Each structure stands twice: as structure tokens, then as C-alpha cells.
Fold each of these.
Amino acid sequence: KLAYVYDEPIADISIIPTYAVSELASGHVKAVLSGEGADDLFAGYTWQYDYMQKMADRTWQQKLAQKLGWPEPLDTIEFYAEAMAMGRFDTQELRKILHPHMQASIPDDSEWFYREHGRTELSPLKSIQNMDVQCFMGELVLTKIDRASMANSLEVRVPYLDHELFETLMQVRESCYFQFEQQKVILKNLIEDVMPQEILDRSKQGFVGPDSYYQEMGWYRDELLDGHLIRDSIITGEGVQQYLQNADHWRLWKLLILEKWYREWM
């Protein structure tokens, strides 16, 4: 059912709870507000904080590299691609899993999409935030929410993505976003008078379902080894077997979503 609803192989693990919540909400209301954009604009994602930490540790390394003529020790695009894609299929992984006759379609640069949206003139955090909005938000999150909600006749509004708010926050100094390892400081300061303290102090939680639904190796084995992707020589059974042996559930999940989509539409 979800392969039909989402219309493309969206392999984000929140596709199931997103659809379930949309279905539940549609039984009570016609429109809802969504918090999408808050993490992107207020620096709430773990990879944004991790990147800034790495940049802070990078200062002396960068100076040394420049003096010695070495490559810079931190590639923004490479870091972003690795942080964003749990179970990332880079060029090496694609060569492992794709059938030999599909090898010619593998791009030389598996991060080409991120490079197209990279903005070298921006500061480090702003560059990451821009890629979050252009790549993660635009190509995944909003597509996922729109299709799950529309399938249930539910309207979703995203107030954090107001363009004036975005333009304002992109001018804020990077030092304002973090305080004593705390993220989304600006947003928390703005809403502390109206939001319960236990909410403000709560640890960050991703919007995902129970681990059991994407870590069940037997499910992947049954669906993929007898699936259409192997039958039609898109991927190899040997590659799937290797992921099963390594319990690589992130990559198996992505392959399963592709399998479901392929059966529905191809």
C-alpha cells in the first residue's frame, strides 16, 4: 500500500509512522500544523552539531594542511553525505550490490546531488543548513509528508518554513545556535515562556517506529531473495546475502523499499 501512496522509493524509516499519524489525524481534523523546518533552521540535527564540533577541531589541522600543501582534512560534502544516509550507497557499495549489466549506470561521483547544492561562499553551518533545506527537506521530508497526508485527505501546514523566518535565521551568527552542547537554543529561548519545562529539557527524539520493523532479518531475506530486483537482474543475490550476513539493516531497508516500489510500478 505504501509503495502506491508514496509513488517513489522513499527509504526514510519514518514513512510508516508518518502515514499512520496522517490516517489517525484525518479521522478528527481536516488540517494540522507540522514542525518541519525547525531542526533545519534552528540547527537541531545531530549532524549539524557534529559538523561544527569537527570544524572547531579543524583549525590547527587546516593551517598545517595549507602549509604542507595537503588536502583539507574535512570535506563538507563527504561529511554531509555520510551523516545523512544511514546505510549509504556510495560508489563502492553500488558496485557490490548492482548486477554487472547495471554497473555502467553508476555515477563517478555518488555525491553529485549534494555538490550541486553546495554553497562554498557560505559559512560552515550555513552551508550545511542550506543543503538540509535544498536536499533533505525539499527532496525527502516535504515529499513524504505531502503524499502521506494527501492520501488521507489531510492538509498539512509548515509554519517554520515561512520564507521571512528562513531569510532572517540565515543571517544569524553561528555562535548563537549552540550553548553548552545544547541545540536549538534560539527556538528554546523564544518559546520558554509558553512551553512546559519538561518539553524544553527532553532529549531529542526521532519520528520513527519500533526497531523491530526494520531490523527483522527474516523479513528482508524472504522479500529480497525471492524478489523482482534479483529476478530482473537489477541487484545480485550475493550482494543481498552479504548484507544479511552482516545484519546491515539500513541498506537492507533501502533495498526493501526499492523492491516494493519496483513491484508496484515497474
Amino acid sequence: MAGNLLQDVPIHLWQRTRRLVSLDISRNPIEVLGVNSFSGLEKLQQLDISGLLLKRLNPRTLHGL
């Protein structure tokens, strides 16, 4: 999903991918990551958010990863 035109991370995206261990959403024009952006991804071990255009990141967004 890296280098696409994703502008947000809809929570419903992960409902069927709960076993995901690696996620690369880098180099996308995402400005905000919400509290529930990665909820349900308990198995996630690697997350690449480099190159995002983040203006806001709630501290709880990455809690539990």
C-alpha cells in the first residue's frame, strides 16, 4: 500500500486482516492517524509510516501494537 494516494486509514480495512504482521503505508498523503486507525491488528509486528504528511498523531494510535 506504499506510495499510493491513500488519504486516510479507514478502520474497516483491517476487519478481515487481523493476522497481518507487516504493514507499509509509507509515502502516502495521510495527514491524520486516528485512535482506531490500527485497531484489531494485535499481530502486527512491523509498521512503516515514513514519508506520511502527518499533521496529527494521537499518542493512543499506536497503543497495543
Amino acid sequence: ADASLHRTEEREGRTAMTPVEGIPLAPGAELRLRPGGYHGMIRWSGPGPAPGDTLAVTLRFDEGPGLTVPASVVGHGEALTRHPPEEP
């Protein structure tokens, strides 16, 4: 599998996903990864999980230990219809 981070943005009245290398986050701050804002995308080389499944995803930080969190699988194309864009 190949994982990447993206941010959904409005550009000239259209919604676009922009790849990001990382997300600035102050120590102790919270950030929700979700469709319509910052989100992760995973591409599978073969059969992958189905929409509605939950995966254990480990987030890595520049400093400190990683953090394993549950992540809900959302089908391609359904993400923006389920959640409006939000501020980071």
C-alpha cells in the first residue's frame, strides 16, 4: 500500500485536493483528519479494505513517538458528499 496526505481546498469555485508533505501541529494540539480538510489516502496494489472498514493507522511525528489511531475507510468519490470542507 502507498499512503499520502492531502488537503481539500477551494480554488476558483472548484474543490481540489493538494498533496502535502506534512501537517504543522503544535505540541498538545488536536487535528482531525477527515474528508473535506486534511486527510490521508491509501492506494492498494491489490484488493484492499471496503468502505465502512476501520484500519489501524500509525501517525509519525518529527519529534516524539508515533501514535496508532483508528481510521474509517471511505469510498473514492463519496468523501466530499459526506463532509463539508472545514478549517484545519
Amino acid sequence: PGDIKRNQIDYILVKQRFRNHVRNSHTFPGADIESDHCLLAAKFKMKIKIPAKKKSVEKQDLNLLKIEPYKTQYNVEVKNRFSILEDMDEEEANDDHNEWQNLKESIIHVSQAILPKQKKRKDKEWMNQDIINLMEKRRLNKGKTEYNQIAREIKAKCKVAKELWYNNNCREIEELESQHKIRELHQKVKDLTNKRKNIDNNSGNIKDENGQLLFEKVEIKNRWKEYVSKLYQDDRGDKRRIDNIDGSSTMKEEILEAIRNMKSRKAAGIDGIVVEHLKAMNEENISIVVKICNDIYNTGNIPKDLKHSIFVTLPKKPKADTCTEYRTISLMSHLIKVILKVIIKRNETKIEKHIGITQSGFRSQVGTREGILNLRLILDKYLEIKKNLYICFIDYEKAFDKVKHTKLMDILKTTEIDGKDLRLIQNLYWDQTAAVRISDEMTDNFNIMQGVRQGCVISPKLFNVYSNNIFSEANSLRGVQIGGHNITNLRFADDTALLAESEEELQEIVTLVNERSMVKGLKMNVKKTKVMVVRRNTKTKVNVKIIVNGEPLEQVEKFVYLGQLFTADGRCEEEVKRRIEIARTNFGKMKELLCTNQLKLETRKRIVRCYIQSTLLYASETWTLSKESCRRIESFEMWMLRRMLKVSYTDHMSNQEVLRRTNSKREMLRMVKIRKCQYFGHVIRKGSLQKMILEGRVEETRSRGKPRLSWLSNVTSWMGRGSVACTRMANDRNKWRTWTANALRGDATDR
């Protein structure tokens, strides 16, 4: 306006769906009209296509197989149909896999015939049929008085149903926490708070190798097949010769135990059989399964559908548009999982002998908590004597997908695993095929020539043995020296931290590990592999230059390892603040539920304990708590209570009054202390790597002055005893638990 400035205010918009239909566009200025607008001409080539509707996969309600009369009917009809098919195939009895095909066909046919379709998940899972009936009655009622009366009744029933539903789920979460089933606990929390990632991005557009966005489903399928088949392609040699084919047949008890220990509600492989079908079988039908498993185990011949995997792709981040930004998970037959579970159970002790104590991943009674504490304790030991610790956090490119099958078999042959077990593993990996599932369609089949399958029950054990062969040679180099032990690495599956006392020693370890990794087919991701120097005086910069494949690694001052933030000063203040902010964010996402008056305050407090507290207290047993960290935890607890009461800080209500109104005590910090003290007792009694590091000494003289706050000093100060007295008392579990409860009794306050 006024010819002072030029504005571009008119746009012609094209839907994202039709963007690739615009061929070119051009403006034509100087049109003989009384306007400053320019004419726009464009070539628009449209391909009108009716978008295909997504096929809805109807699933049977498999939970009904746990109850009568469905369970009895299922077993009777499966047995009858299997017998009929067996009689029809008597002339073809030479086919080794006829029994499996007949059993599979019988299970699928009977399951579809007798089980109703699974009901869709309700948006409000606490809704029951009584409320739905009342809502229908209200809809049909025209009288205002009766309508309002029914509406009030519905509102009251909804409140009761919601209370009951949340309390039941909180009870389940509390049981999982008491049983230390951390993975299932967080999975339950994600289910109930709808925090699961939307994995239905497989039908979305992806880019080809040249960065060109693909729109057609055929092109997308071809791209996925090209990418995944290339990922698992390798110039693999012939099968390794197995001299001694020894091993006893599988027993019914082994099969039953394997089936019983398998988790329900897992996706089926290409055969459509899930573990719920097997769990519902009676003794007679289980005998058929045992015979089929023994035929496979004793001959080494595996049916094709048991060797075929379906890959599903899970996005690693939102709006993923390249194949590398997805993680591939394999869905395989549940029957082969049963056989592999039997093999794992038989050879677990033999396999554990070939896995180093520094490996914390996929092992019994060991997890991320142990891996984090190992590193925390080592940091305490070195910072106590003012000695720098040099760490390299390794990130491998597609570690599980790059395992060489021939080298894996060579390593397994050095163990004491029975010949039949080795033969079955080798046949499974050498003859396996796969396809990628894109929405409701499959790509063409392709061969898998390398890698252990993510989603296979035996893959973690195989990878641990495989990776241990890489790091075993590094143990000959000098790492950190604690209690006469040399530690060069700490691992959780493929997440690895290399440790050294100097830059030169760290470079030597990194070089050797990189060389051994490349021989085994694993490649370090130089961009994601980081170096950190942990030291007392962080004001003074200590520069290090670690080279991998001719490229320097980035040096950082903080790094997230196994879900916990490690900083260059070795303290936990940043991690505590980070965890509080994560919990605060989760509280905000559930604000409408936690701050409403529709639920009782006690129910909302219980939800906070189950959902919010579980995210805050992740690996809290490994924290070293300063006074400032304790203050932050207590402040966050009061912040939540004030939000639940809808009390602002401008209301100038004291903490005592807030606690009185909520009928609460400050107990979050006390819970952290109790968990940490209980874990201390567990470490002392278990006698593992944690105990060795905790009781070991670094051969240096401690510097003068006040001792630095450490993980152990937290426990001794809370107990009011020295480390020797605490260690002696912790050996008796009952006495230690009583002592802990008495010592921390006064920490739950109403002030």
C-alpha cells in the first residue's frame, strides 16, 4: 500500500498429495489490466487414483482360550481335525514336515471357527456395559427431568468406574515394581498413558538412495526390499562341519516350561500360530507338539515357514523418511522360539562361561542398573584420589545386523554346546528367508546372509558370545586398576564404554578394539562415538585426541549412557535435575487427570506414585545424592502436591498446610534412600563385579582435605555407621532391612 514496500500476499496452495503432479510454473508480468498482480501459468498433470482402504485385520479373542468351555472345545476340535488330516496323508508319510503342516492348519481353522473376533480397544477403557446401556437409555428419553436424572446417574457411575479402573492398574504396577520387573513396569505405564510410538509409519513416503521421495506403494516396497536385503547381504561361506552330532531329545517337561515362560500377546510369524494357542493345549495335544519338536531337533531339518521371518520397521524418530532412520524387528514362528528356548536353557551355563563379567546385557539378575553402578563406582574411586579417568563411549553401526555367520559358528564350536544344538542354530541361520511388511502388504522374499535377528530369543546370547571374542584381547592391555583387577571395558549388549588412565592407553585400547571389531564385521560409528575425560577440576580443560580410522573422535563434557547422564565432574546433580524435568513433563501430559476433582485425591496420589515416580526414580539406586539434589527432589514432590490441590505459590500456603490437606508426608526422598540402601545390601550379598569395585582400592594415596562425596559415603552417613559395619550387617538380609527401616524412619516428615 502506498507503493512504499512490496508485499507478497497471494498464494496458490496445492495439497501434499498432488505436489508431484505440478510439472512447472511461470509468472507473466505486464498484463494489460488495472492491477499489480502477475498472471501465473502452470502445467499440472494429475493422476487420479482412488486411495486404497487399509485392510483391517480381524483377530480372534485369544484370552477366551484360558476359560471353559472354549479351552475344552479348542482341544477336542484340534485333535479331531489333526487326526482326520493325518489319516488323509498316510500315503505321504515320507514327508518329514506333514505333522507340522497338519497341526498348524488344525489350530488356525479351529481358532477361527470357535473364537469370536477381538473387540476393538475402547477410547475409555474404564467404560463398562452398564454405563453404555444408561447412555442409550438417555439418548432415547425425551423427558427433561428423567433425562437429567439419568445423566447424573451416568456421571456418578463413570466416576466410580474410573476410580476402580485406575486403582486396579496401579495395583498391577505396584506388583511389577515389587517383583523388580522394570521392563514390564515401564511397558505398562506406556500402555496406560498412551505413550507408545505410532509405528504405523511404514506406509509413509520414504526416500531412495538418491534422496528422491517415493510415493507409489510398489516403489516403496521395492526400496525396502533393496535396503534390507543389502543390509543382510554377505559373501558367506559354506556351513561349518559339525563332527559330533550329540544331544538328547527334548522332553515334554522342557517344552512345557519353555511355553509357560514365553510372554503372551506377541505378534505371530508367517504361520499365524501364537503362544496362546500352545498354552491352551492339553496333554494329548502337547504330545503332538513335543513329537514335532523332536523331529526337528533330531534331524536338523526345519520347515520353511519356521525359517522365514517377517520384518517390521519401527521409526527411530518422528517423521522418519529414510530407511536408515528405521529399526528392523523380525517376527518369527513361535514354535521355533519354543525349541530355541529349550536350547538356551540347556546351554545357559556353558554360554555364561564365555561371557566376561563386564557384560551386563541380557544376563540373569543383571541389567542397566548394574552397568550404570559399575561406571559410577569407578568414577568415585578415581576422583577420590584426584586422578583423571579417560572414557570412550562406542557406538556401532547396526551391530546386531553385521554379525558374520561363519565367524559366529567358529566361536560357538569352541564352547561345549551339543552338536545337535549347533546344527539346529546353523541350519536356522544358513537357510533363513525374510520379507518386509509394509502396511498390509509384503515385499518379495530374500535371503538373510548375516546378522542375528532382533526379536529372536537366542540372538542376545549369541551376540554376547560373539562380542566377548572382540573384547577378550583388550583385557591384555592396561585399563583401570581396582583391587588388583584390570578393567578395560564396561558393556551392555553393544553399548560399550572403554576405560583408561591416560590418553595414550585409551588410544591403544580403542585401536585394538576397532581392529578386532572390523575383523568380526562390526564398524564403529565415528560420528556417534564420543570421548570424555572425567576429572575433579572441570574448570581446567583437558584436551584429548583419539583417532579411529583416521578421524578424530569428538570430546564431550556430558554423555547419556544406558539412560543416565554422565558429566565430566563425575557428579549426579545434572542427572537428578534431568530426571526431575522428565517427570515434570510427564506430569504435565497427565495434568487433566491428576488435577481434576473427578477422581479422589488418594487415587490421584497413587497414580503419581505409579506413573510419575517410576520415571523419576529410574536407576536412582546409583545416584550419589548431595544436599542440593535432596532439596530438589523434595521441592519437586511439593510442586506436584500443590498442582494437584490447585494451589499457587502466590497463595502463600505453607508446605505444612499442603501436606495436611493432602494427608501426606514427604516420602519421595526417603524412598530413594531406602532403594539405595536395599541395593547396597543386594550388592554385598551377591558378590559380583559391583562388590569387587566397591571394596577394591586404586593404588594411589588419597589427597588431603575433606573426602569427596561418594556413592558409599551416602549409605554410611544415612546409616550412621562405617563401611565395615554396614558391610557386615548387609550380609544378613533381614537384619539389614530392619536396620535400614529404623535408620530412615524419620525421613518421612510432614514439614
